[in-house]
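Quick question, first post here. What does this chain look like in 3D?
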Amino acid sequence: MPSAVKYYPPSTPERQRLMVAASQERAQRVMDYERALQYYYGNHPLPITVEDNMPDDNVVINMVRMVGDRTAQFLFPEPPKFETDIDSLEDTEEEIWLRELFEKSGGLAFFNRWAVRGYLSGHTFLRVMPPKFPGDQPFLTLYDPTQVVPYWDAENPSIVLWYELRYAVGEDFYMIDFYRKGLNSWGIDKYINRNRVDGAGGTFYERTVQQQSMLFRALWSTDLGAAGWELVQLGNWESNYPPIIDVPHLPDPDKPYGMSEVANLRLQDTINRIFSLMNMIVRKHSTPVDVITGADVDDVDNSTEDLFAIASPGAKVTRLELKGDLAAVDQALERAIIMYLALARVVLLRGEVADLQRVTNASVKTLFLDALAKNTLLWSSYSAALKIAAATALEIGYANRLITNNPVNLDIQVVRAEPLPTDMLEVAQINAMGITGGYMSRQDAATRLGLNWARTSSAIKAEHDVMMERQVADAAMMQTVSPNQSNSEQKERSNEQNVDNEN
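> Answer (accepted):
Ran it through. Tokens below.
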């Protein structure tokens, strides 16, 4: 966790000392992320050693991926929505523009990838890239979590003094410093280092994509030396928001970095071992063994697979088979899986859809209480980052004449999709009782149903006005067709009303 009192360029001795600490930290983060990534891909250590010409009984139940995918899908069941004017009846220009921006950046796949990376690494980094061509939109980039190192203020770790970004192109290594220059001003300086590191060079492109990725991360964690960095480009970032948005996944109680959820790997290995042992036991005892007593081997004729012929009349055949039902082993496996899911705060429902037909909304939320609590904590971090990303993109769009309204005056709200289904009939019934009882307004009822009250009330009023106009037109038509009958009917209704009043 590098900390400093101010920004130091790569050529200074202070930065050289900080780079040593940063390289050590990056190396540890690379190792942790690579291990988590390998488990996510299902590359787990084999619990049972496989000897030559022996069956492989190893089984992998990838709990790491199951929990990671469920966490990401629970956090982003669908792309979040952005509102810049909650009273607007139609989508505003900015809302449409932001929706298109995030769709072009990957849509739901981008949000899922972002959450999975946070789950694996504990901390992610976003950047809103300015458009390269006139009239083009900005683009949202998700950096490799081991690619960026923040340098925090030693006195206030909540303040980032600068970000260090490293990447490789061919045999050359680059580093970009994003450093604070003022309240709303950042410098962006690019450096190149042409020092060669063992493992790169001509053989690099002969490696697989996964091997290249692992090598890149190894090179990022290598201290190339501060003296070898050559300044090649200067840049500025004039904005109300930082050029890089760092997002902690879960809060770490002791570090500014976020906390990864891949922390129960021993329990994951135990689950694999128990299931593999069950598989081995079943394989070994799946074929029964017949034991014959009271006869010589020559007396047995087993020319057919399902029939034995024994010459000795006193021979006895006994079949050996597994008498136990592996209930204890199966129970141990089930408990291990339940414990893993409990530690990950992920719910895996048992039963069928019919079991939930008479369950209330409150009951469903109670079943998912742990998952909802974790989801709320994650959303507080991810939604804050999305708000900054949206505001940054709008600021860039306004500066490049892509939108007409100044985003400084906009109150951006990030609206998430509910991860759990809701019985709307139950909500509507509760709303009806509240309106009838006089302790709930129609606006509150519409809000609980997920409706925009401004739009709904306007639509109701418009429909009412159309209905009234239609009734007036119908009455006028009736008056035109049979005016005498209409007058007599009016007199008759008036007389009936006078009689009722007298009574």
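Residues 424-502 form one domain.
Residues 198-207 have pLDDT under 50 and may be disordered.
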